[in-house]
Amino acid sequence: MEYSGITRNCILVTKTLIAGTAVLFICASTAFAAGIKVIPDSSVIIQVVNFIFLIWVMNIILYKPIRKIIAERKVKVRGLEGSVDSLNQDALEKDKAYGAGIKDARAKGLSEKEAQVQAASEEEKKMIEEITSRAQANLIEIREKIAKDTEEVRSSLQKDVDSFAEEIGQKILGRAF
Description:
The protein is mainly alpha-helical.
């Protein structure tokens, strides 16, 4: 529980007076038991006033600045804790954003890869179709050439068929010219 400065001072003075009175009675009873007589006179009041004055002066000179420094340090620590929490939150958000960026980049890379694979596949199909069409054209040309050559050979052999047939017939019959 926090008290204001005046209330705190009153409480401190009250505690000090109670403690001082208790010490005085303890010393007096101890001195009386030992056979020494201590008779309180006006010097006791001066000592109590002096003690209260010293406490008040020390409170102003020493305790208040220390309490002020401690309070400032407490505020500073709370501020630093708040900034640490906000920095941690920022770091988590940046980490999530980084992870999402990597995920998006991977997805984009995969889609580009798929697009390139598809483009390469289409180009491969075009090349195969082109090669196939060339091969078909070459095959047709070769067949036409073979057919033409065959026809030429047939026509040239057709001219000679009669002479060959006559030669074969004579060889079969055993006649020779």
